[in-house]
Design a protein that fits this description.
Strand order of the largest sheet: 1-4-13-6-7-8-9
CATH architecture of the largest domain: Sandwich
Low-confidence stretches: none
Number of helices: 14
CATH topology of the largest domain: Jelly Rolls
Mean pLDDT: 93
CATH class of the largest domain: Mainly Beta
Helix content: 40-55%
Shape: elongated
Largest sheet: 7 strands, antiparallel
Length: 507
């Protein structure tokens, strides 16, 4: 039973984990999960074999499953709380010194941002320890060199921090571990063979030539794969941008028609902005089909109120349309095609269907964008008859509508809100998508929605500010500066210009 329990465990003759976490070994890799019980979730795994006399080197390849992780090498470790660390942390390489169990005994000796670091891929870390120096290498590039002699005479090993999940492979300890270099002539010859194989993968002669230096060939092939993947990713980004800009142009062209714009088309274009395969005509026809069904169950001479009730019954009783209760903030609820497919949506998308069906049976139904809740209404003898599509087409009183406003803002009445035109409905649908992506920290997607809003209204200062902040989140500082410059130049009301200037100066 003792032997069976060691399946997947580290060999205790080689490795000794301390400070918790879950260290495992499989297929030659060491894996670690769960936070350690040292400060900052620290856990270390000490290599038990004898350390060479100084100078010596230690290296490992590490891959972090997440951009915010921290894991790598330790050296000169006393087996308790004292050691140096060399590891990636949130995309930067850190050289640190730990002299005790708490944060007060921790020093960051150097922190380097290097283009050599490959996020969420394998990275080769190597440390050289000399009498008075510590030298750090990342993927073959020397990135730090410090004079530090505080800790000497300890062991080497691995470390992880916080909730990081990491994998390690090819751990090695020795006097000299610098990678062997392949002669330029050999690299050139092997590269030529790879080019031939890309054109003809069954070129046996080229394969034979690659086998003359397996290590160099595999490295060159891996680099070529990365280059091609990078090219493919760049092409996808261009493809997506061309698509979005085309859809944006169509949406703006439709909105420019004002009251004659097709709200169904506009809502479907918002969905097509994200879903390139969407067949707009199919869903446009579905709205028309539903309207035809409703025409078959009403009398043209019926009152407006009776026709509205017929739409409610058709949607919510006969066909099962309903407000999304368990997954409200799913983007699908904002895509009109998916709302039609699933018969589930949020207030504004259900309202769009209600408005569009009404327009096809000659009922003038208008949207009403109350704070936090979209409804529809029609006029009867000068009075608004308000319907709540999210709640099964229920008619709500003026008092209930006022309560919706007061629950959100504390004051106000529903009568203070003007009917929503197609432009404001479209913008509100995009605001919803923007809010969902920001809450989920999907900043690139959020940026696409803000770009769409600014194309619709280039003079919207709040969206200009949103775009600047999102560009900063996406490390696109130059793009952020252009929007901040626009704000400083136009000086719109409601924007704290002093803070904008401070942010601009920092950039």
């Amino acid at each position: 039973m003792e032997n069976w329990l060691t399946i997947g465990q580290l060999n205790s003759a080689i490795w000794k984990p301390i400070m918790g976490a879950n260290w495992k070994q499989r297929a030659g890799k060491i894996m670690v999960t769960k936070p350690g019980n040292g400060f900052g979730g620290r856990s270390i795994c000490i290599f038990q074999k004898e350390i060479p006399e100084i100078p010596y080197e230690v290296k490992v390849e590490v891959k972090l499953n997440g951009k915010k992780g921290a894991a790598g090498l330790i050296f000169e470790a006393d087996g308790k709380n004292k050691h140096y660390g060399f590891y990636p942390s949130e995309g930067n390489m850190r050289l640190t010194r730990f002299e005790g169990p708490d944060v007060l005994s921790w020093s960051i000796l150097d922190q380097v941002s290097s283009e050599s670091y490959r996020s969420e891929e394998w990275n080769r870390l190597r440390i050289r320890v000399e009498e008075e120096k510590i030298i750090g290498y990342l993927n073959g590039e020397k990135i730090c060199e410090l004079n530090d002699t505080v800790l000497r005479g300890g062991k080497v090993g691995l470390a992880k921090f916080r909730s990081t999940e990491a994998e390690f492979k090819h751990f090695e300890l020795g006097k000299e571990l610098s990678p062997k270099t392949t002669p330029n002539k050999t690299v050139k010859e092997l590269t030529q063979q790879i080019d031939l194989l890309i054109q003809n993968p069954i070129n046996n002669e080229a394969i034979k030539q690659l086998k003359t230096d397996i290590s160099a060939s595999k490295l060159l092939l891996q680099n070529r794969i990365k280059e091609l993947n990078k090219t493919a990713n760049s092409l996808k980004i261009i493809h997506d941008r061309v698509h979005r800009e085309h859809v944006t142009k169509k949406l703006i062209k439709e909105l420019d028609k004002g009251i004659k714009s097709d709200l169904t088309l506009c809502a479907l274009l918002i969905a097509q902005h994200d879903n390139q395969e969407l067949d707009i005509e199919a869903y446009h026809s579905e709205i028309n089909r539903m309207a035809t069904d409703i025409k078959g169950i009403i009398d043209p001479a019926d009152s407006e109120e009776k026709k509205v009730k017929a739409i409610s019954k058709y949607l919510f009783e006969d066909n099962g349309y309903h407000g999304s209760r368990t997954d409200y903030y799913n983007r699908s609820n904002s895509y009109l095609n998916e709302v039609i497919d699933d018969r589930e949506g949020i207030p504004i998308t259900l309202s769009v269907i209600f408005i569009e069906l009404a327009s096809r049976i000659n009922v003038e139904l208008k949207g009403l964008g109350l704070p936090g809740h979209f409804v529809v209404f029609h006029q009867e003898q000068g009075e608004r008859k308000i319907i709540d599509p999210f709640n099964g087409g229920k008619q709500i009183s003026t008092k209930e509508a006022d309560q919706i406003v007061q629950d959100q803002l504390g004051i106000g009445k529903a009568s203070e809100y003007e009917p929503a035109d197609n432009l404001s409905i479209v913008k509100r649908m995009i605001y919803n998508l923007k809010g969902i992506t920001i809450d989920n920290k999907e900043y690139e997607d959020a940026l696409n929605y803000v770009n769409l809003l600014i194309e619709i209204d280039p003079n919207d200062p709040q969206e200009r500010l949103s775009r600047a902040i999102l560009n900063i989140q996406n490390k696109q500082e130059e793009n952020a500066k252009s929007d901040l410059e626009w704000l400083l130049k136009t000086k719109p009301e409601g924007i704290h210009l002093q803070r904008i200037q401070e942010l601009y100066n920092r950039l």
